[in-house]
Design brief:
By secondary structure, the protein is α+β, with helices and mostly antiparallel strands. Helix content is 40%, strand content 23%.
């Protein structure tokens, strides 16, 4: 009887593993960063130092932003004439226009917020997981 029980347990684990693998293949990675890495072309020539890793798309910033936000809802977003700025708990996805579509920059929030503060200002609110402190009296100082 014990062999039968172990066989059933083994089959159950195999089925669960197959489902997880299928989900990963069909629905991409489990983060906004992974989503961008899996779907867009790497463009190291557009990197900003070692902090902002670049990808490109032939689509407009608004089209790319729709694709990304349909897959991963951002904590905050800001859109203006310069591009689309998406904030997630740990990462930012910044989508800027280029002549042949868009450049998509992935960056940790700890370096993205100081870089884009002059653009997003207070539009990027801060939720759980934020490591950047506010500036007013009593705001985490």
């Amino acid at each position: 009887m014990t062999y039968r029980r172990w066989f059933v347990v083994g089959v159950a684990f195999a089925v669960i593993g197959a489902l997880v693998a299928a989900f990963a293949i069909f629905y991409g990675s489990f983060s906004p960063r992974g989503y961008v890495e899996d779907r867009y072309r790497r463009a190291a020539s557009h990197d900003i130092g070692r902090n902002a890793v670049a990808y490109t798309s032939p689509r407009s910033p608004s089209q790319v932003a729709k694709e990304v936000t349909d897959a991963w809802q951002p904590a905050d977003q800001y859109v203006d004439g310069s591009g689309v700025y998406l904030r997630y708990d740990d990462d930012s996805v910044v989508i800027l226009p280029i002549a042949a579509g868009s450049v998509i920059l992935l960056e940790r929030m700890s370096t993205a917020y100081p870089r884009y503060h002059s653009t997003v200002g207070s539009h990027w609110g801060w939720g759980r997981g934020s490591t950047v402190r506010g500036g007013g009296p009593g705001s985490g100082k």
